[in-house]
Amino acid sequence: MSLDSRLWGKAARLGKDTRGAHHTHPLICHLLDTAAVAEVVWDELLTAHQRSMVAAALQVPDEQARALAAFWAGLHDIGKISVPFQLHPDGPKYEDGKLRAQELSGEPGYGFGTGAVQDRQSHEAAAHWWLVGIFKEVGYPSSKRRPQCRLSHAVAQLLGGHGGRFNPVVYDKDSRCPAAHHPGMGVGSWEEQRRIHFDEVRRVLGVKSVPQGRMTPGAAVVLTGLVTLSDWLASIEEEIRTRLREEGWAGTPEDLDSYWQVARTAAPRLVQQTDLLGTGFARAPEPAQCAGETGLGASMARQVPDLVTEYGPGMLVVTAPPSKDRTEAALRAAAVLGHAANARGLFYALPTGSAADSHMAQVHAFAKQALTGPWRSLLLHSSSRLKPAEAAEQWAHANATDGISAEPGEEWAPTANSWLNSHHRALLAALGTGTVDELLQAVMPVKFNVMRLFALSGKVVVVDEAHARGAWGQKLMLRFLEWAAALRIPVVLAATAADKSVDAMLAAYRRGAGGATEPVMQPRRSPGWSFVDAQSGGGHLPQQPAGAARASTLSIRVVDGTPYDEIQAALAPMVAAGNGRAAVYRSTPAEAIRTFRQLTQDLPGLDVALVHEQMCNKDRWQRLAACRSTFAPDGEVSGPCVLVTTSMLEHVRGLHFDLVISGPAPLADLLARAVQSVGDRSRLVVLRADNPSGLDDAALVRRTNMLLGTGRTVSLPDELPLLLDEVYADELVDRMGEPAARELQQLDNRRTVRERRAGGTAGWLEVPGPRELDGDLGLLSRDHPGMEPELLSSVLGEEMVHVVCLYPGRDRQGNPVHLLEDGVLEQKLDRNPKGRPKPGQLVPYLIPVPKQLVEAMEGDANPAWRNMAALKNVLRLNLKQEDGKWVYTSPKHRFCMSELGLTIDQLP
């Protein structure tokens, strides 16, 4: 029997012939396309370490590992030789609407039972089930009792996971006759064609070797990434259209040998479209160039290169108060690690999207010095995830005053139609600035989690404020660091102070690297740093900075009056003096807007600015960019100015104030805000009578209030760790009377329960560590009962949805349209011929709001909108004008949109 070229692999968006029949791309051609791309990905995109992990696991030379990787990539879709796929109702059709593959069912060899079409097994799972047996036949190591620990099953399971999820183990008795369990796989000609396709891919690629190694977790991550990435690139429709075969193409051995050359010729061009080629790290400057520096930066500049030269890349942990200098020291260390590891980029992770927005300029400036070759930069957090390139472009326009432009021809920002401009691909970009959630999803059983590990395995990862995401975040971070060490990912962690959570992170990286299990401690002195090498997991304590960070005094004053009156009183000396800069933190966006309006009216000599999270993306970016100019250390201001904001600003760097005013908050948050006050005597005023944020822990707010009393003077940085420990101390309860102590104990108990529940949920959701897999990749995709997307969002701390407000208008023909900006016809909501909006167009206008405020709301989205996966968490509000305001009223809430952002009021 010869190969049947009628078996199709691709058809969607390939157009129609002159008779109206859908074009199809034969399956064998798609398999060869993917194999050809895999060769180029191996040569051009994998790092030397990624290649060595595969070769070492398979126990073959590098060239044989390359050939095997391409061969396996060429088998990824062999499960498409199945009844449900070939005869899918949405498959390619003739001009009369009849399925092109329908003719197969009329031929004796392609017969099938009634249950075959209804078989719900995916083509990815079919590949897994079938390949287990064929790999065993050709001599790959196998095991009857524990198939997952042998290569025959490991490769099959790996290839079955190219759709984003691995399938459970297929045991020996089931793999002998997979069609008995899944009739959709078919027998007769279906089975023969699978074997012929397998043999032809193997023959064309010239793969004769049979590896005898075992699949390690690191090799599995790299090979999964290579196969999935190669499939994505080989599936670009406009490129497939250039390789379509003529009608009647037979797929003879000669045809296949000829097509293999076509595929190999096209592959480099496909990989070139990724914007990923050629990026690396320049050699870091010699330590002598830093000889004039003192403190943390100088200590690291002198010693990090020697540590990395002796032990290889690993993880650096830096503990110091947040500052631009600490960020600079972390980035310098990342450059040294990146060069030593031959890394292809960097991902900078922060606790919040606003912090990522504020750091992008500094990260970009670093990349201009540290990265070589072309590179692409993306912004990655919940508000930018729809279309990261549009987000980066809008951010660049907002920050144009900093000399960054997104004009055509700029190398750093990808174009809107870039191949990288997709949620699942964006993390592959050479330079990413985003939230820590992007890392943590790599160790949660979400779709394409292993692609995240693959993307990060070729980079350096910097995590700023690594322990700022609560109990669940700490638990997941430990698991991520285990995987990072196993994959030899260089990591730089930056934290405010050394504590047990930082020690746990050091231990997790050592554990992942196979190091000793004895306890390790981060130096408690501030600033301090330590190093763990990824090769052995050994801990190294370098010589610490000769002198502590520049000492300063933080003066904390707690006031009891009416919050707004106290704000006015605190700002009055600045207004009278005619100079000074202040920040005022309010608990909600509505409070911030109200305070902004009051200060503007009551203190006309004061320049008042406003920024909060419920502004649309582009407005928030523009206002943050303006703040970096006004409130920079060397900012030029002609008079007193104040920034009114919310907790979104506390992780934003580069803003310096003479005075910070805040409502009640946990001590760690207050100190993060106070750090933005500069000078030998930093000043923080706490408004005791103000409302705390509903997101803050009531017990920690109460303990902080008790600890501070009427005020306190803190010596920084020496007293910072002691103060953070003191807020948790049991002695606080002992100082109180019995009723107050009992109430605080109840609040403490609730916090403990919440933390344990969050840690337990995170432990339940997290994937196994690299040493716990035992060969079963299915554990990385395990599906727990009750594990709904909402639960994942809750654990990720993303209980947010995004709102987009639309204004009524008319086009030039007088037809009613929806506008993204009031009265701006150029910002009309664009739609494709099917009526679907363009997600990228919405990115600048997204507004994050707490999900609890819009629970059960449907908004005004039409079916075309609701059916788009990218927009399932985007709430559309068609605004109406009432009393001169743009509003939207739901059964429970009233939304009001203005140039100051969105406010949401609960209806009585």
Automatic annotation (TrEMBL):
Where do the coiled-coil regions begin and end? Answer: none
Which InterPro entries does this chain map to? Cas3-like_dom, CRISPR-assoc_Cas3_HD, CRISPR-assoc_Cas3_HD_sf, P-loop_NTPase
**Which keywords has UniProt assigned to this entry?**
Antiviral defense, ATP-binding, Endonuclease, Helicase, Hydrolase, Metal-binding, Nuclease, Nucleotide-binding
Q: Does the keyword Transit peptide apply?
A: no
Domain HD Cas3-type positions: 20-233
State one molecular function term (GO).
Answer: endonuclease activity
Q: Provide the family line.
A: In the N-terminal section; belongs to the CRISPR-associated nuclease Cas3-HD family. In the central section; belongs to the CRISPR-associated helicase Cas3 family.
- Name assigned to this protein: CRISPR-associated endonuclease Cas3
